[in-house]
Design a protein that fits this description.
The protein has 190 residues and is an all-alpha fold. It is elongated and about 60 Å long.
């Protein structure tokens, strides 16, 4: 491959990312925004957006796929299989909250029937289950906790934290992990 071809491909990739990022910003504020508004925000011609994405639906699909890859990379970057469970839980939470904060519109569209999106989410769910088993074995989670239920509660906490705008991802991750591990009660029995 020639240097010119590599530069053109790199340029095209940058243009696509610029369009995706602009689309996230614009559609987060106005879900009904036009391709022209997205092009303007990206600083490219409308024809450039249409050349890269045949339709608005194709653009939103590309955004969901991009956000899903970012989501998977966020989980991977925390090394949940070989980092101490409590550290991994915090790191995964903070990393995922960053993606959900930066790509909220696209992430809300990522629960599609796209087989790649489904595969990534299944892989992340399995990794979360393994992390929770490790956390339970290490005594971070109680031995009698239903791990499937704990994962669903954790996902709900992450979802709610991602909707919050009162703190950054690190502070929100601390809240999520603290709430998961300690709850909000006083510990008194029913």
């Amino acid at each position: 491959m020639s240097e010119t071809t590599r530069a053109m491909r790199s340029d095209a990739a940058r243009t696509v990312r610029t369009i995706l990022e602009a689309a996230e910003r614009v559609l987060s504020r106005n879900p009904g925004a036009s391709m022209e508004q997205i092009a303007e925000a990206a600083g490219v011609a409308r024809t450039t957006v249409h050349r890269r994405f045949a339709s608005r639906e194709a653009l939103v699909g590309a955004m969901a796929a991009w956000a899903t890859r970012q989501f998977a990379e966020a989980v991977e970057s925390a090394h949940p299989e070989n980092t101490p469970p409590l550290v991994a839980l915090y790191q995964v939470t903070a990393s995922v909250l960053r993606v959900k904060s930066d790509w909220g519109f696209a992430m809300s569209r990522a629960l599609s029937d796209d087989p790649e999106v489904a595969r990534v989410h299944a892989d992340v769910e399995e990794r979360c289950d393994r992390l929770f088993r490790r956390a339970q074995a290490a005594g971070v989670l109680r031995a009698d906790v239903d791990l499937g239920w704990a994962r669903r509660v954790y996902y709900a906490l992450v979802h709610e934290a991602a909707q919050s705008r009162d703190a950054g991802p690190d502070a929100l991750a601390t809240r999520v992990v603290d709430t998961l591990l300690r709850g909000v009660g006083t510990g008194q029995a029913l």
